[in-house]
Amino acid sequence: MGDQIQFIVEKLNQEPFRKNYNLISFDSLESLQLLQLLSDVLGEIDPKHAVDIREELPEQTAKRMLNLLGILKYKPPGTVSDLSAFRQGLVTGSKAVIHPVLHWLLQRTNELRTRAYLARFLVKLEVPAEFLQDDAVADFNKQYEELMEAFKNLHKEHEQLKVSGLSTAEIRRDISAMEEEKDQLAKRVERLKKRVETVQNHQRMLEIARQLRSEKEREESLAQQKQEQKSQLFHAEQRLQRAQVQLKEMQHVVADSKPESLMKKLEEEINFNSYLVTEKIPSEMESKKTSVYYLEKVVAEPAMTQADLTALESELDEVNAQMNQLIEKRMITYEPTDSKFSMYRQQASIISRKKEAKAEELQAAKEEMSSLQRQMEQKSSQAHGLEGSEVLSEDEFKQYVSRLRSKNTFYKKKRLEIAEITAEYGILQRTEELLRQRHEAIQQQLQAVEEKKGISGYSYTQEELERVSAVKSEMDEVKGQTLDNMSEMVKKLNAMVTEKKASLAPVIKELRQLRQNCQELTQERDEKKIQYDSCVAGLETNRSALEQEVKGLLEECAQEESNYQYINCMKRNLEIQLQRAKEEMKAYVSPEAQERRRAVREQYTRIILEQENLGKKLREKQKVVRESHGSNMKQMKMWQDFQQLMECKRDCFLKQQNQAAIGQIIQEGGKDRLVL
């Protein structure tokens, strides 16, 4: 309790409360001050509850707090068993009630703030069934549920975006970059519009471009439809081929077999299916049902502690021991007259197991065959999707090889032709380059002649004038055609406008009447809405009170049920322990030596004697080790010194060998020098 109060005081002294309490001042708060403090904490979680409790009645305060605590899923602690006592303590401001509530609220403020925010939009308003019979109310209720689902999805997306790590600064930078790109695109569009407006007949060109784009889209959709139809056709051909193969197999079987063999196969298949239906599948269903029953039984039971598990394990061991005893008694009282029946039973059980195993193997083989067929179909469909072909037969493969050879010879001929064309293309490139150089030289000579004569640029100006005159003549022709088309379009548009006006006149009159009717219906709907809202408010208050009462009763029932289950489990544990104690006492008092040996006391006595004997042996061994410790240590020291001495001799020997080898090398080097 002290740790709880310490935690509450620390949280209240922090932001956003800043109460500056200590343990003494907090413990000396009156009931009204505690209620106001609880109201402030609830107001921090839900701003609607930030009110002064002196301005409302105690019943309203308690009802408001209980409603919010129910939304926040607060459960009273185990010490407050009676819900009415909890309500009474909340009304009177009892410390035993308010302190746990404050501790629970301050532990998870952020989580509860989110839960209160979501409850404002996700607490569903229950509409009575008689009101839902009205179409308008039903439509509004459906729209209300759709909006609630949309809010759930948006909130989930919002939480995912918060977790994804995208910061507002990055989003703002992206938005600003996108706005800049948008402005640049708008400027480019404006420049292109201005450039296009100078072109004659640009509207018609734009219309033609739109038609071209729509036709391209239509072409893509048609190509997609064509591809889908091709795939459907391929699947249909595959099914047809499979059916033909099956038909051929059946015809082959019918041609090569007799009615007796067909009947025998059918009988075998019928026997196998009847075995599956009558024996195998029902036994499997029974085993599954029993396992499901035991699992449901385990789930329905309350949570088990370690003591319960140990008790169950001990009970299981006892049952196994009893089973072993019964088996031993049965083996002792075994009569030889039943040997034949037991032999037949064993043979029947072996045959039934073999039968089950073969049935499982047959079923597995059938499943494997079906899976292989599905894989074959998938592979064939993948091959078709990759523009491949089906698996060829032997004759088709020979034809394919012959076609491939002819295509190979044709390919080699074409390859030679391509080589000749490539060589000729190189020659033509060289010729073009030479002609271009000659043309440039002639142009330079012509320019020099024009400069000498004083008419430089004459040839270039003459070419430009001829090109401009040709372009001007073409533009004049286009202008004349454009003016004629525009005059015809204006006439057509005027005629269409007059026709539309004449056809829309009666429709406009009807629209005016419908607008008046719509205004009247809107006023009537507003009046009905006001009545509905008042009725909903009254029903909501009654519903919330009933829900709180029902929730309290359900929680009380659940707590009583858990207490009953706990007491029942404790009772069973005590009964098991009492039974074990009785059996132990019975075995200990029993005159039979075998029964006394099974007693736990006798077993532990034997174990204690064995451990004492083992301890004596270990103490004797320790004594021997202590007596021989000094001599052993001395011997170990001598061995270490001997090892160091041998290592020193080895090092000296290695050094001597190295020095001898170095001297020999030096002598050989001196001899070589003398020879030189």
UniProtKB/TrEMBL annotation:
Top-level division of the source organism's lineage: Eukaryota
Query: Which intervals hold domain IFT81 calponin homology?
Result: 3-126
Q: Which Pfam families match?
A: IFT81_CH (PF18383)
Coiled coil start-end: 137-253, 309-382, 504-584
Sorted keywords for this record are: Acetylation, Cell projection, Cilium, Cilium biogenesis/degradation, Coiled coil, Cytoplasm, Cytoskeleton, Differentiation, Phosphoprotein, Spermatogenesis
* Cellular component, GO annotation: ciliary basal body; intraciliary transport particle B
Quote the InterPro entries the UniProt record gives.
IFT81, IFT81_CH, IFT81_N_sf
Chief location category: cytoplasm
> Which function does this protein serve?
Component of the intraflagellar transport (IFT) complex B: together with IFT74, forms a tubulin-binding module that specifically mediates transport of tubulin within the cilium. Binds tubulin via its CH (calponin-homology)-like region. Required for ciliogenesis. Required for proper regulation of SHH signaling. Plays an important role during spermatogenesis by modulating the assembly and elongation of the sperm flagella.
Q: Which PANTHER family match?
A: INTRAFLAGELLAR TRANSPORT PROTEIN 81 HOMOLOG
What family does the entry list?
Belongs to the IFT81 family.
Official protein name in the record: Intraflagellar transport protein 81 homolog
In the UniProt record, the gene name given for this protein reads: Ift81
